[in-house]
Amino acid sequence: MKLQIGMRIPPKIGAEGLELTAAWAVQAGLDVLDVPHLNPEVKQICDVAGIGIGSVDAVQMGGTLLSEEDARRENAAEAVKKQITEVAALGAKVMFMCLVPEDHTQSRQESFAIWKDTFPEIVGHAEREGVYIAIEGWPGPAPHYPTIGCTPEMWRAMFEALPSKHFGLNYDPSHMVRLGIDYLRTLTEFGERINHCHGKDTEILHDELYECGILPATFGAKYGFSEGSWRYTIPGQGDVEWSKVAVRLDRLGYKGAISIELEDHRFWGTLEKEREGIVKAAAHLRNYF
User: Fold this and answer.
1) Which residues does residue 257 pair with via DSSP β-bridges, in sequence order?
2) β-pair partners for 8
3) What's the per-residue H, E or C state across the chain?
């Protein structure tokens, strides 16, 4: 099984500028970049460097798309449709979204009702343009965890409401591990709706789990990219069995990229650490993909 390996661009690496970032990524053996935006200049830089586009971030990452205010929601939907048309013209196939409402106290049930009204038109437009939407399973910030699209319960309801394959998942097992969701069973039930993948892992911290359970630590987490009983890691340093993920993705016929999302306190804070983390993560993923 040979899949493209890429990365979301970490802050210190990205601060070097896209030309240097793309050149370094190719040197590090990566095949694609997930970019925060795509225009002709970005496309040209990546083409010259010889690296592909993995995903493009939606201009509205949830937020106003789930607003209770009709005008804000309609403007957001039009902006996303316009962006879909623009990135499709540049050859992009995957648009990345995280459906966090702008009001974090808005319940997931309320957000789902708004989503159900708003997204059929967006997804219909994406289908006409040949673009696939991939939603992220990050549950959102504590204490409300307001994101929709991060549990099987919600995925089932979403995919029943919108059967088009052009609306699907960004498969990121790190979020499922921290939430106690079976990330392999997710592939069995929802594998046909996977439009993109993130290479990120989670370590369950059992001593900390004893201290605070699944609740966020009262007096602060001991590690970065953690809430107490878990921490995000690069692939290979957490609880995800990537060999089993690879077998199931291969059976599903997945042809997209595995893009490293670097959120690991051990490989953070300097350009050198970020580069080390990306290289180590890619080396581990290459064992299976």
Assistant:
1) 4
2) 34
3) CCCEEEEECCHHHHCCCHHHHHHHHHHCCCCEEEECCCCHHHHHHHHHHCCEEEEEECCCCEEHHHCCCHHHHHHHHHHHHHHHHHHHHCCCCEEEECCEECCCCCCHHHHHHHHHHHHHHHHHHHHHHCCEEEEECCCCCCCCCCCCCCCHHHHHHHHHHCCCCCEEEEECHHHHHHHCCCHHHHHHHHHHHEEEEEECEEEECHHHHHHHCCCCCCCCCCCCCECCCEEEECCCCCCCCHHHHHHHHHHHCCCCEEEECCCCHHHCCCHHHHHHHHHHHHHHHHCCC
The span from the CA of 197 to the CA of 233, in Å, is: 16
Tell me the pairing of strands 100-101 and 62-63.
Answer: parallel
Structure tokens that stand for 18 in this block: 């896209």
Q: 88-114 in b/e burial notation, b at 16+ Cβ within 10 A? A: beeebbbbbbbbbbbeeebebebbbeb
Which residue bears the tokens 């209770």? Answer: 68
Residue 148 and residue 99 in contact, taking contact as beta carbons nearer than 8 Å: yes
Q: What is the 3-state secondary structure (H, E, C) of 173-184?
A: HHHHHHHCCCHH
100: which strand partners? Answer: 62
Each residue's pLDDT expressed in tens, for the chain with a length of 289 residues: 799 999 999 999 999 999 999 999 999 999 999 999 999 999 999 999 999 999 999 997 668 999 999 999 999 999 999 999 999 999 999 999 999 999 999 999 999 999 999 999 999 999 999 999 999 999 999 999 999 999 999 999 999 999 999 999 999 999 999 999 999 999 999 999 999 999 999 999 999 999 999 999 999 889 999 999 999 999 999 999 999 999 999 999 999 999 999 999 999 999 999 999 999 999 999 999 9
